[in-house]
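Format notes (please read before filing issues)

Several people have asked whether sequences and structure tokens are stored in separate files. They are not. Every record keeps both together, in the order shown below: the sequence lines, then the token lines. Line labels are part of the format and must not be stripped during preprocessing.
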Amino acid sequence: MQPVSEINPAAKIVPDQASNLSKKEQVAEMFNNISGRYDFLNHFLSMGIDKGWRKKAIAEVSAAHPQAILDVATGTGDMAIAASKLLPKRIVGIDIADQMLEVGRKKINEQDLAQVITLQIGDSEAMPFAAGEFDAVICAYGVRNFEHLEAGLKEMSRVLRPGGKVVILEFSHPAKFPVKQFYKFYFRFILPTLGKLVSKHSRAYTYLPESVMAFPEGNRFCEILTACGFKNAIAQPLTFGITTLYTALKG
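Then the structure lines:
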């Protein structure tokens, strides 16, 4: 069996290398610390493009005609809220950062969506749901933070009904000049500086580019999805490859 670090080199990337906490614990602590500024930074640092990425992801989810949707690593609930446009009977969002969930619940209540969307503490590697409970599983920019990537993906497969669909958004690397060069400069210098200034967290927006650079993307991630119980895995680069939209069906 391949070591975790070979399957997913991003598993070695943590917010604080000097900490004795596990990656999972560090990630939860980091997001709790930036929860109050997370939404602003998310939209500001992506220049608002992230909203279009979520729309494309939800368009892929709609093909499954889902009545029950699970949003893994829901954070402040933006993907769950976007998925509500599909008019499912039920959306559940799980995350390990309770303060992110609190921000999400306020947004859900403000939009009068509490009867459809429920947010709760939940670990991607041990989900508190029955096998086949959901028609679709979505995850936006969360799989990169999993401590054990394969365990989380296998859980996504387990809770999906046969033929159910998984839709994942994750950052990736542009390959063409000049976007590749600008992206690297922005990710290494501008984003960490602005992120630290606004969030007041010294490592959150340094951890982001480091983990993105280490994460297996494109065809490699599709291979991992297939090994974890999915079929017909497809990687669709968006905005010159700044992010990638992955789709697959439960095998």
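For reference, the curators noted about this record: Residues 20-173+216-250 form a domain with the Rossmann fold fold (CATH 3.40.50.150). The beta strands are 68-72, 90-95, 117-121, 134-140, 160-171, 230-238, 243-250.
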